[in-house]
Amino acid sequence: MGIYVLLYAGIIIATGLLFGKVAKYLKLPNVTGYLVGGLLIGPSVLNLIPANSIEGLEIVSTVALGFIAFSIGNEMKLVYFKRVGATPIVIALFESLFAVLITLLGTVLYFTIKGSLTVENFRFALVLSAIAAATAPAATIMVVRQYKAKGKLTETLMSVVAIDDSIAIILFGIFVAIANALGNVGDASILMQILDPFIEILVSLFIGFVFGILLTLGTRWFTGRGNRISLVITFIFLTIFLADYFDGSTLLACMMLGAVFANISSKHEEINGLIYFVTPPVFIMFFVLSGAELNLSVLGVVGIIGVVYVIFRVIGKIFGAWFGARVMKAEPVIQKYLGFALIPQAGVAIGLSLIATQVLNPEMGSQIRAIILSATLIYELVGPVITKIALKKAGEISIEA
C-alpha cells in the first residue's frame, strides 16, 4: 500500500470529523456519524477506501481497542466494588446468560416451526446463540465520554461491559464444546474445550497484571508529561502484542493493565487526562474503519434466522440485565435502563464467528458469519443512539456535547 496509507488515513480522519459534526447537529452520538461516514466511503458504497486497504489498516483497530480497554480498566477501582459489592458481576452474568439462552430458544423455535430441527441445526443454534453474550465496549465508552455521563447507571454500565466479554468467552467455549460433542468432531477432549476459555482469560489477566505493575513503577521514574504518555503507549502496545502472541484476549489484557494501574498508582488520573488528548484521531479512525468494513450485501442473505438472532439477543440482554439488577436489588434506574445500553456488538462477536466457521460445516459456518456481520451493522448503527437515550432518560446526561 506504501505512501497511499497516508492518503487513506487522511480521508478516514476527514470523514470522521465531517460526519461527527453532522451527527452532532442531528443530536446523534458522534460514533454513529463515524460509522455512517465509514460505511459511505467503504467498499459497499463509494469505495474510496478499497477492501485491501482496510485490511492493511487493521493495526489501527487493534491499537484503538487497546486504548479503549485500558480506559475501561481504569474505571474498575476496588473502592467502587467495595461500595457496590457483587452487583455488576451478577448483572453481567445474567445479561450474558439470558442473551444466550433466549437466542437459543428463539433459534430452536424457528427450526421447530420450519420442521427442520436436526442435530446439525441444533449445533448451529448452539454456536450462534453462544455469540449473543458478547457486547462491544468501544461504542458504549465513546457515548459516555462524549456526553460526560455520570451517575449510578453509568458506573454500573462501565463495570458490566468490562466483565461482559470474559463471561462471553467462557459461555462460547462451553457451548462450542457441547456442539462438538453432539457432532463428535475435534481432536481436543470436551474438558479441554471447556477449559480453553478459562486458560485464555487467565493468560490475558496475568499479562495485564504484570504490565500494570511495571507501568506504575515506570511512571514514578519518568516524570515528564511526554515521557509518561510515551510510557503508557509503550505498555499498551506490549500488552496487545503479548496477549495476541500467547493466544489471549487483547481486550481483557488491556483492561487488566488499566485496572491495576488505576488501583495502585496515585498518578493514574493525571496520566489518563494526558492520554485523553492523544487518542481522538485513533478512535475516529477505528470507528470510520469499522463502518467501512460493514458490508451491506450480507443483509440480503441472512433471512429470517438473522432477524431472530437480532431480536432475541436484544430481548435477552434487556431481560437479563433487569433480572440481574432485580436480584441484587439495584437502583430502579439500573433495572429499567441498563439492558438498553448493552445492545452494541462488534469485534469480539466477529472474532467468535470466525471460530464458528471451524466448528460447523462450511455452509453453516459462513451463514453464522453473515448473520453476525449483519447484526453488527444494525447494532453498531442503532446501539449508540439507544445507549444515549437510556442515559438521558436516567438523568445522567445533563448537557449534550
Distinctive features:
single chain; 401 residues; mainly alpha; Na+/H+ antiporter like fold; globular
Outline:
By secondary structure, the protein is mainly alpha-helical.
Fold topology:
Elements: H1 4-25, H2 30-41, H3 51-56, H4 58-74, H5 78-84, H6 87-114, H7 119-130, H8 137-147, H9 152-183, H10 190-221, H11 225-245, H12 250-264, H13 268-276, H14 280-293, H15 303-327, H16 332-337, H17 347-359, H18 362-393
Helix pairs in contact: 1-2, 1-14, 2-14, 2-18, 4-11, 4-12, 4-14, 6-7, 6-9, 6-15, 7-9, 8-9, 8-18, 9-10, 9-17, 10-11, 10-12, 11-12, 15-18, 17-18
Please describe what this structure looks like:
With 401 residues, the protein is mostly helical. The protein has one domain (64-283, 303-393): Na+/H+ antiporter like fold (Up-down Bundle). The chain is built from 18 helices and no strands. It has helices at residues 4-25, 30-41, 51-56, 58-74, 78-84, 87-114, 119-130, 137-147, 152-183, 190-221, 225-245, 250-264, 268-276, 280-293, 303-327, 332-337, 347-359, 362-393. It is globular, with a radius of gyration of 21 Å. The two termini are 37 Å apart.
Bin the strand percentage.
Answer: under 5%
Tally of DSSP β-strands: 0
Largest sheet, strands/sense/barrel: none
Residue runs with pLDDT of under 50 for 5 or more positions? none
The name CATH uses for the topology is Na+/H+ antiporter like fold
Order of helices and strands: HHHHHHHHHHHHHHHHHH
Shape label = globular
Summing up helix and strand content along with how strands pair, one would put the structural category as: mainly alpha
Give the number of helices: 18
Q: Overall mean pLDDT score?
A: 82
Multimerization status: single chain
- Radius of gyration, in angstroms, nearest whole number: 21 Å
Number of domains: 1
